[in-house]
Design goal:
InterPro entries: Cro/C1-type_HTH, Lambda_DNA-bd_dom_sf, TransReg_Diox_bact_type. The chain is mainly α and 72 residues long. Helices cover 69% and strands 0% of the residues. It is built from five helices and no strands.
Length: 72
Amino acid sequence: MLFHTRLKELRQQQNLTLRKLGEKAGVSYSILNSIENGRIQPSKDVVIALTIALKIEDKEELLTLVRNASEG
């Protein structure tokens, strides 16, 4: 699975808009929009902020998806 696909899935499961997730994570709407549309890969810090905002226990899952995308 691709990072941006998983992020959108997790966000929608919690009924969050991109703007609301951005507020919670401290990431701008435009950056989140670009990430979710697969235009850019997030930094490790952004991934961690998103996992905290989404209350995801397994941070490694999302970090691994980002690493795999940057390697491939």
